[in-house]
Amino acid sequence: MLPTDAIWGGFFLLHICIGYMGNSLLLGFYVYTFLTQSHLKKPIDRILLHLTLVNILTITFRLIPDAVSSFGARHFLNDAGCKAMMFMYRVTRGLSICTTALLSAFQAVTISPGNSKWAWLKSISSGCIYPALLFFWGINLLIYIHIILATEANPNNTVAGSMYSSLYCRTSRSTGNSQTFLSAMVIRDLLFVVPMMGFSLYMVNLIYRHRQRVRHMHSSRLYSQTPPEIKATHTIVLLVSCFVFFYCANNFSTFYVFYRLQKNPGLERITGTLASCYPTICPFVLMKNNKIMSKFTSSLSQMRITFSGRAFSR
Fold first, then answer.
1. Residue 257 CA to its chain's centroid (Å)
2. I need a labelling partner for 66 at 20 to 30 A (CA). Which of 83, 89, 128, 287 fits?
3. Residue 175 in contact with residue 134, Cβ under 8 Å?
4. Radius of gyration of the chain from Cα atoms?
5. What pTM does this model have?
């Protein structure tokens, strides 16, 4: 094992730990809210809970194989293992795109004025969450069936040619429609990413108009206080911005690696890192400016201090 491989392996392990820590803390927060603070539950929490679970799965199926292969186990998966790993990674990545798009759309409808063209959606938006999530699961499972046919374990010999290749898996040479399939996935993704960006711009416009109205108020106290809905919108707009940045960077890297004749393990690792940056950063963005989350972490700290005091007294 080369020193560079060990460094990459350590980096992936650190990335995994940070991603698991953030998403597990956020997952515990939502479970805590649902079980003990039911009066604080909001419909949007269902979308955020689903996004958190998808983030954990994406990190699992993307980063753990990269970490294992970086520590020298390049061929730890056979064809069946590669098919399962790549299929689940692509499905969870697709679910991340769809869920983030749903999140931005739901928040845009929530904060839209009563006289806007989106107002009629407010009464039915909550009831559409579960059907939308089920639809996302179904469509992504169907789309990525091709992965099962097109993926195989990476051989011992050097891989060359236009194909998708990671440290442990690659697309099979026997499938001549890999380029078509890759383009189709990008087109499918854009069908969600473009509306996501549109809803985000719509929310930015609403925030700007809100600030303009508040600025005309005489009370500086009212000006300094930001409604919770606006704070939540700030967070979601920031989340979408992070998603679009890493989405574009990952797609550029993926296409470059795909069409590069000689495959470079370093570039493949960078592609894997970019693919998992959003699931890792996402929980920390969502925890920003969340008062309930602060109370939850304070409760955990208080419980830890209490248990430590009891253990010390014994």
1. 22
2. 287
3. no
4. 22
5. 0.83
